Amino acid sequence: MQAGNSSNPPSKLADATGTVHEPAGDDARIVCLVPSITELLCDLGLSEQLVGRTGFCIHPREIVRTIPKVGGTKDVKLDRIRRLAPTHAIVNIEENRRATAEALADVVAHIIVTHPQGPRDNLDLYRLLGGIFGRDVEAEQLCASFEDAYAQVSRTPRRPRDVLYLIWREPWMAVAPHTYISRTLALFNWHTQPTTPSELYPRVDIKAFAGKVDLVLLSSEPYHFRERHVAEVLAAVDGAEVSLIDGEMTSWYGSRAIQGLRYLAEYTRRS
Q: pTM of the full predicted structure?
């Protein structure tokens, strides 16, 4: 799956590994190990078939609170999953370890691997899960909402900005240009630094970006930056604007991406 896929429905229900999945019946039992996709499944009307989720799957709160936890995205409890007897498990190439997916294959019959790499990959994601679990109509409704939000972004030109997007402190860590976050910000003409890292989430010396970026964004996740960190970064990256940003709105694919585009449209307009 590549960033910038077309909006045409896929002819086969193939996941990120190329595995083709057959449509599931109404008795499908789903364990989801990807927070943003747990929310997507609920928005597709599949909450009653969700039998397990991670502790980081927190939206929509009133629904997921009734769904059993099976550990975290990295420390999955296979024994709990086995007891829940799911037919399907949903994982993500970045969120979950390969070893987890391989171990799940001994417990769950169908492993659906996801890997959205850019905003428009959400269209295929909606249709993949909608097609597998009999929610094609709901998936197309989400696609229409996404296209509407995307079109509004495309119609509004914005001045280019060089951005350092920080996701961690001690050590400082940023995002590479080939991440979902960076490709989302690029829609708004915001370009993340450093430009040629060897890792998706490189460690950085923030002082080295003084004079090289005009904006530093402090994400609310995975590290929860707060107002007290703004002054610290301001002192290190002299001359740059420093601002807190909602990490869910930049990094969560799935149905949250629709809200994220609208959030960023307003955020970039004010910045």
A: 0.94
